[in-house]
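Deviations from the work plan: none for this task. Representative record:
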Amino acid sequence: MASRKSPETKEEKLALIYENLAETINPEIIEGILDEGRAVKVYWGTATTGKPHTGYFVPAIKIAQLLHAGCEVTILLADIHGFLDNLKAPLELVEHRSNYYQWTIRAMLEAVGVDTSLLKFVKGSSYQKSPDYIMDVYRLCSVTSEHDAKKAGAEIVKQSTNAPLSGLLYPILQILDEEHLGVDVQFGGVDQRKLFTAAKEWLPKLGYKQRAHIMNPMIPGLHGGKMSSSEEDSKIDLLDSPETITKKIRKAEAAPKIVEGNGLLAFVEYVLLPAAELKTGARTFTVERTRDALEPLVYSDVKAMHADYQNDVLTPQLLKPAVADAIAHLTAHIRDSFAASPEWQNLTTLAYPPPAKKEKKVKNKGTHYPVRPKGDEAAKETPKDEAPKEA
Amino acid sequence: MASRKSPETKEEKLALIYENLAETINPEIIEGILDEGRAVKVYWGTATTGKPHTGYFVPAIKIAQLLHAGCEVTILLADIHGFLDNLKAPLELVEHRSNYYQWTIRAMLEAVGVDTSLLKFVKGSSYQKSPDYIMDVYRLCSVTSEHDAKKAGAEIVKQSTNAPLSGLLYPILQILDEEHLGVDVQFGGVDQRKLFTAAKEWLPKLGYKQRAHIMNPMIPGLHGGKMSSSEEDSKIDLLDSPETITKKIRKAEAAPKIVEGNGLLAFVEYVLLPAAELKTGARTFTVERTRDALEPLVYSDVKAMHADYQNDVLTPQLLKPAVADAIAHLTAHIRDSFAASPEWQNLTTLAYPPPAKKEKKVKNKGTHYPVRPKGDEAAKETPKDEAPKEA
């Protein structure tokens, strides 16, 4: 299905692996594995707490590129953390949500046409309760100071002495996952940088090898600022209809001429252009101008698009319907797969039962997960522009 | 064997359970169980790091009294903690040490003649790596703040941001042990008070019931101050010969007329008098005065002994040989059992191999256990005057 030519040489593979990344730690590990001729094993984790939305396309596109470059990708569905996020939520609900995540993420990757035969989903609960794993948790806790654990989680875990202790365990678990999932590389946003640096130092203390780390930049949300789960309109669900997508994008914040902090432009750069290339082989993003009876603007280069935007050639009024249209196309496969799968449909009702008034109250009371800053309910459902790391 | 009459009524049982305690939390739990007519289940934990010495008689006598009062006593041999105490120490060594602890503690209890049929030894590793247990660790960590964990461990865990994270897990584990060992009561020194108070609050957060807590006072060591493992003479091994015991006690610090901080008098009060009562039915401690051709001083009452000491009737010169003699008698059964058991003898060599010069260096480098204050090597082998709690 993927029309982008599969990379064959080491250089082609590296180019695809590193495309659009903000930073890489220990790239020599990745390069050494390519020299050996074996598949690079990468892991990316997500807590199965909220509901995946279009923001998840940012890591998903990188994962699609990794798969296309011949990497074996493990997606960790951090269900234990999902359960711990709210002790009042029964384990079955979290179980249904991890299954929902699995269906959705797979469909997102299929949507760009990459081969998913090297894709693997692993639930945290399948090994994070095993004796080997827990002995490593105890061992790593005994050689890691509170100070270092705090530093490692500084940008991803709420920092205060009133924060739950699980916030300090968080880096311990995420770092051990590299060893216990048997991977070579961990992938995450640059907000994971301190944790990834810690991983380099900590794993060798237990006699385990260092891993490489690849990091996506943090990009602004589609609506400029943070997406908010409390504002339904600010979050585009992966199953939203084309009409709903258009409506929501129309409300997106996009100041004319200003490129910085513009979530629509960032989404084109990090999702729509690479998705088009993976799917069709052509790295293009088209902006129709039929209303003004002008030729469409066709971009394959982010710089050209930014220049046009700054000069108001590419106005928000032109950009918005183009982005909405591209998202509707990108998510068509997801909607189709959902429509064709009674199993997935059934799962959705189980995973996200309609909120009863009473239930909502319980949920708010039980909210104390350390990764989510207090009062930032948004982060639970829609962490910045990235899918959340393990939570 | 025990000559003290077994208590029969609730009041008699309570009197023996509470004898010489500093404090009890939730005594109504203990009393309620006695009203039900079932055996009260008590747990006491010890990290299997060093080597049990005569200081362990302080908790052992209380355990003997609990057994004599019909309680079921579980002794937790905290081997995982023993292993974590020094990552360089192989697991087999720790395994041998827990077995050594078991042999020794059983012999200490037999030495005072109590029925040990209701005594049970449990190794931490037998359940502290199980999925149920670890899920409770995760859950309790997610509802306990760093601040509260620190407060709970304030007197038993080294407090600094550079301390290992395991120090914060320490209270979590010790409190969960109450649930997972299925006990009604936890027994420890008053240094455990903050942890015991936390246990009352924390267990109900996971839907578990509160336990009662009984606490021994902290008493001065036989040598007045702290025992030190680096000074062989300051620590009386449970297998020391009567001659060695006499020699060591002769060097004990004991200022004439001063009762406060006098480890010899405290040992008589908390070990020798109750041990004599359990063993013979007579709560007496005898001080010979044959050299001065005087009648022996026979005490059954601590107050009378303190009064004589303050008036210099009972001088350090008289007290020391009497204590040495009583310890030699009390430990005779332990020496005899050891002499009769090739298995125990063999175990001793395995558990405490003669230190090679190189090995010693490695040991010092690996020393980072949170319970032991930095630089206080003594605490590892001979924690204050009490046997250490789980470490």
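Chain B touches chain A through 35 residues (CB under 8 Å).
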